[in-house]
């Protein structure tokens, strides 16, 4: 029964990875305009050990989106977001903490 459960879990994870590979965006939350920086922070934590989604190296794309969201007063806000700058800034800071360390090391 345990082997069957593990096989089902692995199949579900593969289906989820395939969906993300086809639907993810570095610019917006797929299917929703709400909480874009939360979505990017969640994506980063979820994919910490996954360098690519499909054929795309996802982290540099997401990092560019987060960096573009920084405002002159140092807060973070995306034009597509209705989330307050305070909450968006908290998610942006969480994103920076959650990133894969290998992305910051020299090749």
Folded structure, characterized:
The protein is elongated. It has helices at residues 2-23, 36-46, 58-68, 85-98, and strands spanning 52-53, 56-57. The chain has 4 helices and 2 strands, in the order H-H-E-E-H-H. It starts with a helix and ends in a 9-residue tail after the last helix. Strands 1-2 form a two-stranded antiparallel sheet. Mean pLDDT is 80; it is low at 103-107. By secondary structure, it is mostly helical.
Describe the secondary-structure layout.
Blueprint: H1 2-23, H2 36-46, E1 52-53, E2 56-57, H3 58-68, H4 85-98
Antiparallel strand pairs: 1-2
Helix pairs in contact: 2-4
Which characteristics define this entry?
107 residues; mainly alpha; two-stranded antiparallel sheet; 4 helices; disordered C terminus
């Amino acid at each position: 029964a345990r082997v069957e459960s593990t096989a089902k879990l692995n199949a579900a994870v593969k289906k989820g990875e395939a969906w993300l590979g086809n639907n993810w965006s570095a610019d917006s939350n797929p299917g929703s305009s709400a909480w874009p920086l939360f979505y990017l922070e969640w994506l980063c934590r979820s994919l910490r050990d996954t360098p690519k989604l499909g054929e795309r190296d996802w982290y540099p794309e997401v990092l560019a989106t987060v960096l573009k969201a920084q405002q002159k007063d140092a807060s973070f806000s995306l034009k597509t977001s209705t989330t307050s700058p305070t909450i968006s800034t908290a998610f942006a800071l969480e994103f920076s903490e959650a990133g894969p360390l290998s992305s910051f090391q020299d090749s």
